[in-house]
Amino acid sequence: MSRTILITGATGTVSTALVDALRGAGVNLRALVRRSSGADGLRERGVEVVVGDLDDARSLPPAFEDVQDVWLLTPNGPRAPENGMNAVWAARRAGAERVVRLSAVGAAHDAPNRSGRLHALSDRETERCGMRWTILRPHWFMQNLLNEAGDIAADGAFALNMAAARIGMVDARDVAECAARVLLDDPDRHHGATYTLTGPRSLTFDEVAGELSLALGRPVRYLPVGDDAKRETLLGCGVPAWIADMLEEYAQAYASGWGDFTTDALTGLLGRPPRTVADFARDHAAAFAPVGGL
Ligand SMILES: NC(=O)c1ccc[n+]([C@@H]2O[C@H](COP(=O)([O-])OP(=O)(O)OC[C@H]3O[C@@H](n4cnc5c(N)ncnc54)[C@H](OP(=O)(O)O)[C@@H]3O)[C@@H](O)[C@H]2O)c1
């Protein structure tokens, strides 16, 4: 009988790509979503949709019933460890066999950012969950550049408080493909493994701007700005203060060289090199295009 995989975060960046990577692979896909109304796209792609909220443990049992594998993605925020705990408990109670968890680069109790420290709590819990488990720790997503797409389209420039940071950034679609590989392999194969997933090169944002310029066929510039200026912009766009604080902590860590590395874990899992920023830019050119065309 086919295995059933429960996908959490199913409307988000990584899990949307994961559904694409798992479709047609002979597994049953079930998505946990907070609002049934926003899940038509999932249903159209053949995914069973169950409503539940990781903030509310009582809402979760129906989604985990008869599930063998859980893809566990928690949203950023102070409640992330509680969200993870609720899911792991629901999985245990339902008799699930395996949890594959999305953590984050550098997750550790002494990480210089709150997200890394919160992810470390959930990683420890996952390691003791009593089921088979695998943890993926991706580096900075290239898809974060889409947050700058409006400015790039309008002004040919994007402003970040990353100074001259070098980052081994990774395409979230590659992260999703790694998750799919693990979930489709035998549960014993990756049990107990933690994979740190990066792109092929560690790049500065000047180099990223150069890659975007080449792929888009028009100049794109990186404008380094200070923490206060970036924070003001984020808060002005409605980003919650907790998230703005978290992003500032990451930016400071990256500016000090914390993210300047790559690994070969992704190539090891997929048997091919990771996507480059040039690949990412080409595939998302429309998002960066000025209104009125490419
Ligand atoms: N961005 C990066 O560079 C980076 C790098 C490494 C790791 N990460 C990690 O990646 C994760 C975020 O992944 P992503 O970017 O794919 O997420 P995302 O696009 O922000 O989407 C978050 C998903 O979580 C769902 N969600 C939010 N609150 C929920 C709740 N209470 N119960 C159930 N579902 C809920 C959202 O559903 P709705 O549609 O209902 O909102 C959405 O599907 C975080 O754990 C982050 O630390 C990010």
Write a compact overview of the structure shown.
This protein has helices spanning 13-22, 40-44, 61-64, 80-94, 114-127, 149-155, 172-184, 205-216, 227-236, 241-255, 265-270, 277-283, 285-288, and strands spanning 4-7, 28-33, 48-51, 69-72, 98-102, 132-138, 157-160, 193-197, 221-224. It is an alpha/beta fold.
Can you put this structure into words, describing what you see?
This protein has 294 residues and is an alpha/beta fold. It has a domain at 4-141 and 170-197: Rossmann fold (3-Layer(aba) Sandwich). The chain is 41% helix and 15% strand. The chain contains 13 helices and 9 strands. Strand 4 (69-72), helix 4 and strand 5 form a beta-alpha-beta unit. Helix 1 (13-22) crosses helix 7 (172-184). The longest helix has 15 residues, at 80-94. It starts with a strand and ends in a 6-residue tail after the last helix. The mean pLDDT is 97. NADP nicotinamide-adenine-dinucleotide phosphate binds at residues 9-15, 34-35, 38, 53-55, 73-76, 83, 102, 104-105, 115, 138, 140-141, 144. NADP nicotinamide-adenine-dinucleotide phosphate (NAP) binds next to helix 1.
Elements, N to C (H/E): EHEHEHEHEHEHEHEHEHHHHH
Q: Looking at the structure, what is the overall shape?
A: globular
Computed structural class:
alpha/beta
Q: Name the poorly predicted regions.
A: none
CATH classification class of the domain at 4-141 and 170-197: Alpha Beta
Describe the structure using short key phrases.
alpha/beta; 7-stranded parallel β-sheet; globular; binds NADP nicotinamide-adenine-dinucleotide phosphate
